[in-house]
Write a structure and sequence with these properties.
This protein is α/β, with parallel strands linked by helices and about 300 residues long. The chain contains 15 helices and 12 strands. Strand 11, helix 13 and strand 12 form a beta-alpha-beta unit.
Length: about 300
């Protein structure tokens, strides 16, 4: 072992020891760096991780993801201490709609049912009727009576995808994921020419022209599940590149190619092992949500869970 590996091993041991003392669990989103995924108790999507954590008797959750995800964990586990290793890890898409902007839209469309993608702050969820994920958005929208107008926030690309799948017109908020938008249709073309046998799996946060070229459009958990079950041996992956670590680890005999190396979310990459250790040492950074907001946000999540 070289000095870097020795240091890394010591760091991992310190985290594991402290984690036990604190009765903590570590959650890592599918987009986290490899070392963070490897030390986590659970790796997954934001809703799955938050539900998994709620089922445990841990007293503390260290959420390695972005802010809205830690908030979702807190909403589902109000009695647990929820920590983020780096409070600056926000989601650019979630920050594209403010409570004031949403209130304005609700005034403009007073009859509209508000469906909020899970990539929204707790405050925005509290102002929404339904929450949805990329995996269940079509179902949630289909459950809303046809005569009702729907305002979908904040991702116009996911909104457009759901709108086409559910054959339903919706008012779309002008938000998007800057990381997924870096994946271009020409990237998919190039990779398909290079790897003609590969299946193209993309996330619905991608632009419509990228989605149009995909074999399958799936959430992150959907991509992980499909890659395992499919008979294909090669895949072109159109989502944040952190997911390739998990895909390769779980399917060592298969080959995974990123649609674009530029699909690298800077916020997701703020977390690392050092910050996880400091987070446990200092009980920082605490994620707190005012009770009323948490209650109302939970209502939109519960309404979604009732449908799916
Ligand atoms: O909710 C999540 O975890 C996100 C943002 C992506 C997905 O498809 O799982
Ligand atoms: Fe937000 Fe996009 Fe980063 Fe996901 S990849 S956290 S949607 S900015």
């Amino acid at each position: 072992m070289n000095i870097l590996e020795v240091n890394q091993k010591a760091l991992v041991n310190d985290i594991l020891k402290l984690k036990q003392q604190r009765k903590a669990i570590i959650l890592a989103h599918n987009y986290q760096i490899g070392e963070v995924q490897d030390i986590a108790d659970f790796v997954g999507d934001s809703l799955g991780l938050s539900q998994e954590a709620a089922r445990t008797d841990a007293e503390m959750i260290v959420f390695c993801g972005v802010h809205f995800m830690a908030e979702t964990a807190k909403i589902l586990s109000p009695d647990k201490t929820v920590l983020m290793p780096d409070l600056n890890a926000g989601c650019a898409m979630a920050n594209m709609i403010t409570p004031r902007q949403l209130k304005e839209m609700k005034r403009k469309y007073p009859e509209a049912v508000v469906v909020a993608y899970i990539n929204t702050t707790a405050q925005i969820k509290a102002e929404s009727d339904y929450c949805c994920t990329s995996a269940n958005g079509v179902k949630v929208v289909q459950s809303i009576p046809k005569e009702k107008e729907i305002l979908f926030i904040p991702d116009k690309y996911l909104g457009d995808y759901i709108s086409k799948k559910a054959n339903r017109k919706m008012i779309l908020w002008e938000g998007w994921c800057p990381t997924h938008r870096r994946i271009l249709a020409e990237d998919i073309l190039k990779k398909k020419a290079q790897y003609p046998k590969a299946e193209v799996l993309v996330h619905p946060e991608c632009t419509p022209d990228v989605i149009a070229m995909a074999d399958k459009v799936l959430s992150t958990s959907g991509i992980c599940r499909y890659a395992k079950e499919s008979n294909s041996e090669e895949f072109i992956i159109g989502t944040e590149i952190g997911i390739l670590h998990r895909l390769k680890k779980e399917n060592p005999q298969k080959k995974f190619y990123p649609a674009s190396n530029l699909a690298d979310c800077p916020n997701m990459k703020l977390n690392n092992l050092e910050k996880i250790l400091w987070s446990l040492e200092d009980t920082a950074f605490l994620v707190e949500i005012p009770a009323e907001i948490a209650q109302n946000a939970k209502r939109s999540i519960d309404r979604m869970l009732k449908i799916v």
